[in-house]
Write a structure and sequence with these properties.
Layout lengths: L5 E8 L3 H13 L2 E9 L12 H13 L4 E4 L5 H11 L2 E4 H12 L3 H30 L7 H40 L4 E6 L5 H9 L16 E8 L3 E7 L9 H6 L1 H8 L3 E7 L5 H15 L6 E6 L1 H4 L6 H7 L3 E3 L8 H17 L1
Parallel strand pairs: 1-2, 1-3, 3-4, 5-7, 5-8, 8-9, 9-10
Antiparallel strand pairs: 6-7
Helix pairs in contact: 1-4, 4-5, 5-6
């Protein structure tokens, strides 16, 4: 018997249709069906609920009439706002960061990936626990007196802190192991190439095409959470280089995840070359390009030599990718189809040229 497919109402801000569509894809990844969307103008945000009372009542009626299981918000809500909204709306409430965290939790397979995701999730939950504590303090209002609920909550908070500290310690140990492996690669004088890009741009498929690997790929957001390193042959003159497949980026990525995955993302900073992969058939390719560039800047990897790889070109060229986009990039771009391996040799040729330039300096 198939598991129940939850139904969700998606709530987004005015002029954010593109991120709203992306949020529906995120929900679909969690097997949650979007039954309708609601656009709200948030020029005047209510600090207690984020949404004005009028729109909140409209949303409550809509959720009841459509028998929605979940209300998903395309923006970040504080723990206080979620608690206040839940009193009015009931049901399951998810904001964008929590949805992304849930996907990461389902995708993590390695020990490091699982530790990173659990740490990010607990750090996200901690303000909610502290917020609940403050609420209980107001309810009791008597200094020195603690009810059973408050004592239990205090214990929960201590447990969460203890678990966070344990996970941080474990993550440091795993990152030490990763650093040893990384130092060995550097000592071997191998040329390191990181494949980065927006989620679902086809990075893992390109990784397979360049390394002759057959690692699993899927048309899913955040299919790859754990970095993978393999050798790939470039040319007789160059020989093999090392390719690193990395986690995909996305707009409004929770800062807790970026913090938890910093050790993994350090791989990118140590690269000799970056292949920035875009799904050139996606209508939002330019916004996605800007997100990737900004994330690389935040990581301190924006000065590394980069080749822009426009993937899924077999689809994009049929749709005639606009010239303004190529002009705006101000850099050379290579069209490829990682799935069919079209133009992969051209990409290897460009990589070889860059390595030759580096060696001749």
């Amino acid at each position: 018997m198939k598991p129940k497919r939850f139904k969700a109402i998606v709530v987004g801000e005015k002029d954010s249709e593109s991120t709203l569509t992306e949020l529906q894809l995120l929900l679909d990844t969690l097997h949650i069906e979007t039954i309708t969307t609601m656009i709200i103008n948030l020029r005047h945000k209510d600090p207690a609920t984020y949404i004005t009372k009028g729109k909140l009542e409209e949303l409550r009626i809509l959720a009841e009439s459509m028998e929605a299981d979940i209300i998903a918000f395309d923006f970040e809500l504080s723990s206080t706002q979620i608690r206040n909204l839940k009193k009015i709306l009931g049901g399951i409430l998810l904001d964008r960061p929590r949805i992304i965290l849930e996907i990461f939790a389902q995708r993590a397979t390695t020990r490091e990936g699982k530790v990173q995701v659990e740490l990010a999730s607990l750090q996200k939950r901690l303000p909610e626990i502290i917020d609940q504590k403050a609420s209980l303090d107001q309810q009791f209002g008597v200094i020195g007196m603690k009810g059973p609920g408050e004592r239990s909550l205090e214990l929960t908070r201590r447990n969460v802190y203890a678990r966070i500290n344990k996970l941080k310690k474990r993550l440091k140990e795993l990152q030490k192991q990763r650093k040893i492996q990384r130092d060995r690669r550097i000592a071997s004088d191998s040329f390191l190439i990181s494949i980065v890009g927006y989620t679902n741009a086809g990075k893992s498929t390109l990784f397979n095409a360049l390394t002759k690997e057959d690692l699993p790929t899927d048309n899913l957001l955040f299919h790859t959470l754990d970095t993978r390193t393999r050798k790939g042959f470039i040319s007789k003159e160059i020989g093999d280089v090392l390719f690193i497949d990395t986690v995909g980026f996305i707009r409004k990525l929770p800062h807790e995840l970026i913090e938890a995955f910093k050790g993994t993302l350090e791989e990118i900073k140590l690269s000799d070359l970056i292949l920035l992969v875009l799904d050139s058939s996606d209508q939002e390719f330019y916004q996605q390009y800007c997100t990737v560039v900004q994330t690389l800047t935040d990581l301190g990897a924006n000065e590394i030599k980069t080749i822009l790889v426009l993937n899924k070109a077999d689809i994009a060229l049929k749709n005639k990718l606009p010239q303004w986009f190529l002009d705006k990039l101000g850099q050379e771009a290579i069209f490829v189809s990682a799935m069919t391996t079209w133009n992969i040799d051209l990409l290897k040729q460009k990589i070889a040229e860059i390595i030759d330039e580096r060696l001749s300096v």
